[in-house]
Automatic annotation (TrEMBL):
GO terms for cellular component: mitochondrial inner membrane; respiratory chain complex IV. GO terms for molecular function: metal ion binding. The lineage of its organism: Eukaryota, Metazoa, Chordata, Craniata, Vertebrata. It comes from Chiloscyllium punctatum (Brownbanded bambooshark). Keywords: Acetylation, Membrane, Metal-binding, Mitochondrion, Mitochondrion inner membrane, Transit peptide, Zinc. The keyword Hydrolase does not apply. This is Cytochrome c oxidase subunit 5B, mitochondrial. Zn(2+) binds at C63, C65, C85, C88.
Amino acid sequence: MILVSWDWIPTDEEQATGIEKMIMQAMKTGKDPFNMLKPKEYAGTKDDPHIVPSVTNKRLVGCVCEEDNTAVIWFWLHEGDAQRCPSCGAHYQLVPHHH
C-alpha cells in the first residue's frame, strides 16, 4: 500500500466533479443554472413588472397581493405585454426562459 502525504487540503472547487463542478463554474461566472439564488425583486409596476420566466407562451401565476394575506389569486400570464393581477393590480410579464 502506498501512502500519499499532502501538504494541503484541496478546496471544494478542486475536488468537485460532475454536476457539482458544473454548478460551481456557472456560479463563478454569475449564472444560476438551477435558480438556487433569490430572484431579483421588482416593483410590480407597469415600468418594472415582476418577471416570470417560462419555456412556453403562457404560465399559471399566483399572486399573494398583500404581505400577510393567506389567499392566493391564480391567473394565466401570457407572452407579450405585461399583465395585471386581477385583484391587486400588480404587473407581471412573461419572458422566455433560456437554459
